[in-house]
Structure formats: structure tokens, C-alpha cells
Design the sequence.
């Protein structure tokens, strides 16, 4: 999410100026209730007075800008990964894609969130070294040969359910299934089926569990 | 298909093979055959040696953890659309 939305902001901001001389960004003090509410939220998130360029550009359509901003805020807010690391990832994205807007913007954000020059140098170093490895690999057209060394994460999607592996022909629940599932479990399963298109593997056909003749 | 023939580990001189041991230690994985990138880097140890040391220095825990740095590396690889 961070990579994608960072690139989305950079693309708009980097195209601005020479490429779009007759398309002006809104001023940070632009009028309009929706725009001002949006800009206030953006300023609070970045602790700044000037609203960053990509948001001022897309705010000609305040409803669109508000949705983009919600996605940006969700992607960059503290979650399993902290905001400072996310800014470091965005900085690496911006360096790698040579973004005139993104590199200085995310560098400033990293510093504002407490990263020292040493930390910045660490991100620069990793970005530089892997820009080297990836270019060598692509030039030689090396085929992936290390994917198997990483363990697979079997955890479900957020709020979802662990996938149950069943062999073909094995029934979901053997025997008299209704009596083996508690009412509580049935309520949970019923609710899950309403909020998710397919949270668990599809039930096996009854025909599949018939005893062979 | 690689643009060059990747040499088997046994085709490398002893000094270059030392780099393969470093790869095993770095990834903590017993490879049947060293990864393609390790074999490429071992082609010229005078290049691969310092390049590998710079990578290890860059990836060492500091203000960012090793795991966080792996994320940065993954992001760079993704933006470069590198399938390797």
C-alpha cells in the first residue's frame, strides 16, 4: 500500500510544472468548506502549514482528493509497521523512481519523525546496494532461485479465518454435522458468510463422501 | 534464461568459493547450489568481495533493524520490477 500510494502522489507532483504549465495547484489557503476541512486534516498529519503539492493539485475535485487522502493516511499511519519506517520505505521508493517531489518530501518526513543522518544513510545504503543487485540480475536475466528459503505466512487476512486444508473427498464435518457444531459456532459461521464472499473453503459435495459401492 | 552460462560452484577457484560459504552464513541456509547472484559475484572476487561487504554493512542493524532493511530492499526491488 505504501509503495503504491507513494508512487501515485509522486506521479502527480512530478508531472506538475514544466509538463503542466496551464494547470495550477490550489493554494494552501484555498476557499471552500470541503477543501479547507481536507487541508486542515492534512496539515495536522504532516504538522506543516503548506499542504504538500500533490494534494493541492488533486483538490480541484475535493471529493476525489478526500478519498485519496483517506487512503494515504491509512497507508502511512502507525499500524503493524510504524510511521517512521513507512516514510523510510516511501523515501526508498522515491529515490528508486527518481521522484523530484517524493525524495525531499519523505526525507523531511523521516527527519521530522526522528530519524538521524545515520538512519538516512542506512536507507540510502540499502537502496543503493539493491539498485545494484537488481540491475545486475535484470541485465543477466537471472531467474529467481531463493524464494523457497523464506517461511510461508499462513495467517489469514485481517479479520478473516485460517484456511483449513482438506483432502479431496473429505467431508467438512463427518457424521451428523448439525449436532457436532455448536450454536455459537453456527452464528459465527453465518456472520462470516455475510461479511466475506468465501472466508473458508467451499463445502465438499455430499456425493463426494458417499461410500464407494 | 540467463544471458550468460552460470557456472557450477565446482567450476570456481578455491578463493572464489569462500564467497559461497559467506552466502550460506548470511542467509543461514544450506543451499544445494549457491544462489545465482552469489555465483555472479564470485566471478570476480575483487569486485564481489567489496560489493558484498558494502551490502552487509548496509544491511547490518543500526537505526533500522535488519528486518526493516529487508523491507526497504524489497521495495527497491519491486520498484525496479526485478523478478529475481
Sequence:
Amino acid at each position: 500500500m505504501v509503495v503504491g500510494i507513494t508512487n501515485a502522489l509522486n506521479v502527480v507532483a512530478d508531472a506538475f510544472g514544466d509538463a503542466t504549465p496551464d494547470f495550477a495547484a490550489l493554494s494552501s489557503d484555498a476557499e471552500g468548506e470541503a477543501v479547507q476541512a481536507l487541508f486542515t486534516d492534512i496539515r495536522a498529519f504532516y504538522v506543516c502549514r503548506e499542504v504538500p503539492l500533490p494534494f493541492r493539485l488533486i483538490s480541484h475535485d475535493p471529493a476525489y482528493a478526500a478519498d485519496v487522502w483517506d487512503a494515504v493516511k491509512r497507508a502511512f499511519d502507525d499500524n503493524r509497521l510504524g510511521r517512521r519506517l513507512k516514510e523510510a520505505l516511501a523515501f526508498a521508493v522515491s529515490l528508486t523512481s527518481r521522484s523530484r517531489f517524493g525524495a525531499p518530501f519523505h526525507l523531511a518526513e523521516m527527519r521530522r519523525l526522528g530519524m538521524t543522518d545515520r538512519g538516512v544513510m542506512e536507507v540510502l545504503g540499502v537502496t543503493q546496494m539493491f539498485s545494484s543487485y537488481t540491475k545486475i540480475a535484470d541485465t543477466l536475466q537471472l531467474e529467481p532461485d531463493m524464494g523457497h528459503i523464506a517461511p510461508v505466512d499462513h495467517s489469514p487476512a485481517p479479520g478473516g479465518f485460517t484456511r483449513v486444508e482438506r483432502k479431496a473427498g473429505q467431508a467438512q464435518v463427518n457424521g451428523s454435522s448439525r449436532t457436532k457444531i455448536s450454536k455459537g459456532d453456527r452464528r459465527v459461521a453465518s456472520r462470516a458468510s455475510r461479511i466475506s464472499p468465501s472466508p473458508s473453503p467451499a463445502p465438499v459435495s455430499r456425493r463426494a463422501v458417499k461410500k464407494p459401492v | 534464461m540467463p544471458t550468460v552460462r552460470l557456472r557450477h560452484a565446482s567450476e570456481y577457484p578455491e578463493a572464489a568459493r569462500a564467497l559461497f560459504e559467506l552466502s550460506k552464513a548470511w542467509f543461514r541456509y544450506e543451499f544445494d547450489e549457491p544462489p545465482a547472484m552469489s555465483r555472479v559475484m564470485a566471478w570476480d572476487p575483487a569486485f564481489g568481495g567489496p560489493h558484498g561487504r558494502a551490502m552487509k554493512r548496509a544491511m547490518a542493524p543500526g537505526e533500522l533493524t535488519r528486518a526493516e532493511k529487508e523491507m526497504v530492499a524489497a521495495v527497491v526491488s519491486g520498484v525496479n520490477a526485478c523478478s529475481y
Observations:
- Residues 9-79 of chain B form one domain.
